[in-house]
Amino acid sequence: MKGKVKAMTKLISVCAAASVASSAFPVSAEEGETVLWRCTTEQSPWVEMEPLMTTAWDNDVELYIDVDQTTRYQTLTATPWGGCFNDRGWAAMGKLTDEERAEIIEALFGDDGLRLSAGRLPLGNSDYSMNRTQSYDELPEGMESDYAMERFSIDSDRAYLIPYIRAAMEVRPELKLWASPWSPPSWMKKNKTTYKHVTPEDQQSGNGQPNEIIWTPEVLTAYADYFVKFIEAYRDEENIKISMVMPQNEPTIDVGYASCVWTGEQLNEFIRDYLYPAIEKAGLDTEIYLGTFTDSQANRTDPTLDDPVTSKMIKGLGMQWWSAPLTKRIYRANRENGYVLMQSETKCGNGGNTWGYAEEHYDCVKEFFDAGVNQYMLWNMALDENGVNTNPYVWSQNAPIIVNSQTNEVTYTPMYYVTKHFSSYVDAGARRIKTDGNYGDKIAFQNADGENVLIVKNSSNMNLAVAINFNGRKIKPVVPPHSVNTFTIEGSAEGFDTDTDATYTDGGGDEEIPTMVKLFNYNSPTRSLSVSQASFNDGAELLAWDDRGAVEQQWVLRLVEDGWFRVESFNSEKVMGVWSGSTEAGARVVQWQNNGSNDQQWRFIPVLKDGNTYYKIQNRKSGLFLTYGEGEVINGSLAVQGEDSESAALLWEARVSQGDGLAAAKPLWVSDAAVTAGGLSCKISCGETGGYRVFCASYAEDGSLLSVSSRDMELRAGEETDFSAETAAGAARTSVYGWYKGGVRPAAERTDV
User: Fold this and answer.
1) pLDDT tens for residues 562-575?
2) How far, in Å, are 309, 521, 601, 705 from residue 622 at the CA level?
């Protein structure tokens, strides 16, 4: 059956109607400059709007966006847009004719499509390979090891992966490829499989060992050789160049598809002592990036970044999913190293391919470019209508293009068009430029020829008239509800190549980092307080879940007054409160839009237990305390408020995060004297030279937390350094803590004012 191509829904006139309304701005041809406008809604994808003509800026605005082409940030790479090749993507196209497959490849890689110019492939296996047990060196029964790599073969890639890559290279010959393993070969691992034992069958046949690589020099040497043989096999057997590798996909994720858990220290040692030397010895020019990282656990990145040897071996980092807070910190702290920061895998969704997911995709692209990335990668580029991976517990995922396995109908999903709003306009070598104004969903770039590109989302249910100021030139389009819009206008390229990244000069690299915490109940120290399903909805429940460093597990402390805080979800920007403002014990704790009510305010009362500081977290309105209750705490246990008692169920550890755990924190200096408003000054010293994050926390007389701030500093062992910080009015005690970013607990020395 011949395949049919369709957009997600039929075209209607909402975008065109908005264009007519906004293009009636009176302006003469001599005064005006042309702004091109492209609009996508769920019903009307990729509509070319009537061009708009600019007028002089007149401040007659309500909602507005300022675009400043003279303030430039990071530069995008020569291959800024990419996606991942997986077996199941090519398999989804298996029933199509050659012409129909060629149309899909053109839509992904062609100049009139998404213009993808970078490609990722799994090094051995991924959760979208056809077989979750495959690698390039699996052994027959009775054979325990293959240190000489005698059985190494890339034959498992020949049916799907290599034809997929070749088809893309026919359209985009300069395609730049990189790879990362999801797992080492089974024989190199403690659990003797490429995945975690999660099903009863797995566990019955498994050996009960963790999903980790065997940490011996012999295995690590062989694994580095495995990388080299992969690069050489693709070069020599297929004439395909692998430009870069990363050591492990998502080293914190321990799941039933191909995966392997690594610590930050292990990643550092493997790159420094095994992988880099092996690639160099083989005479390869393949680069190494550190990654890929799914969350904001800096203890996975800092050992490499702080190592004076390994930090020079890597050329970049792969960051994805919930790692934007850590990405931003790395962008600011490591700009002198010239690392490429890649968003290495966009969020994969749940198989619905809805407009809501497309809006989330816009948010993810914006979030990571705002954090400083130079390159953005899609995950699966095409799937069938089921979109399932090899996880034994089925997980359906999204893709920009869907091929129906029954009808061969090809669907371009809303995600496809939202991606195109970026990739079709933002060129290789473009730079992100500054935007300002009271309209939130916006991001802008400047291409090398000076062209300004502004991408705007309207996630509301209303038409919104938004005044846009392109360097003194005004337009006022009416953007439709639930739409993504791209505006382009000619600009000046003066200084484009010579201007330094604005982060160097705008103070951004030295500003205080907003304080975030992760909250762990005493009875469940590995599960953090999370927003259910990462929801943005009012009333979403708070519950316990395995800590992943995810954005819905991080909470920003916003001081209200007198030691009372709003506890704000970093993901949704909604605040922790009690359902319906209840004062009853057992009432659910939920997130809600901030309305200023006192049931959305909490204070942290310290309690010493087992030599560590925990907190009772008290609600201002009810006087009750945050808890999961007295029973066993499991994934999904709901947060409620409860009566005061001596129970450990009321105790919480508040780990200062901003993407980092504070497990290595210890006091550098503690003052028992009262500290008044205006701040403190002291001298601090440490036992080990390096980069520290220094925290200043102020407490009231009753021990409740009044304020906390943090700053990154370089400290030298044995030398005293002046430190000052603002403190809250009426503080009875102020503590200064230092966390060594390399993850090593320093021998800290106490000094006094």
Assistant:
1) 778 899 997 788 99
2) 55, 20, 10, 19
